[in-house]
Model the fold of this input.
Amino acid sequence: MRQVASELAASAAPDRDCRPRSLAVRSTSRSRKEPSYASRPDSLHGCPYHFRPLRPPQGIKLSDVAGTWVSQSMGGPKDSVVTRSILTATADGKGWTLKLAGRDPIPVRVVATGGDSVVTEAGPFPSVLRPGETVKLLRSVGHYKRDTMTGTFEAHYASGATLRGKTTATRKK
Done:
C-alpha cells in the first residue's frame, strides 16, 4: 500500500527537468553560471516550455464609461477652453448624446472601442463657435480611466475648415 501511494505521488509531481540539457544552466560570456528558469514567475514549474497561458487583453466596455460626463474642449496654442458640454453615455452605446449650452441634445455614435479608448462621431449640427456654419462631423477619441477622460477631437465644417483640439471630462457622481 505504501508503495502505491508513493508511485501516485511521484506521478502527480511535475517533471521539473523537462527542458533539454543544454538549457538547464545558461552561461554568460564571462563563463559565469546563471540560475535556470526555475525562478521565473510566468512558468508553471520553472520550465520555459510550459508557460501559463496569457489572458487576452481586456478592452474597455461601454458599461465602464456609462454615466454623465461634464467636459470641456480646448483649442489653440494656449489650450483655452472653447466649449463646455455634457456627454451622456449608456452601457449599450445606443443612447449616447452630447448636450451643448443652449442646444438640444445631439445624438452620438460609438464608432469603435479598444484598450482604454472610445471613438465617437456626431453631426451634422449647428456650430457653437462659428455662428451660421454647420459641423458636418465631430470625431472624438476619449481615453477613459475611472472617472476621468482625456482625449482629442476633430470638427469638420461644411465650409471645408477643420478644428482640432483636446478634451477633458469628469464623470458626475
Observations:
- The CA atoms of residues 7 and 83 lie 74 Å apart.
- Confidence is low (pLDDT under 50) at residues 4-16, 19-27, 35-44.
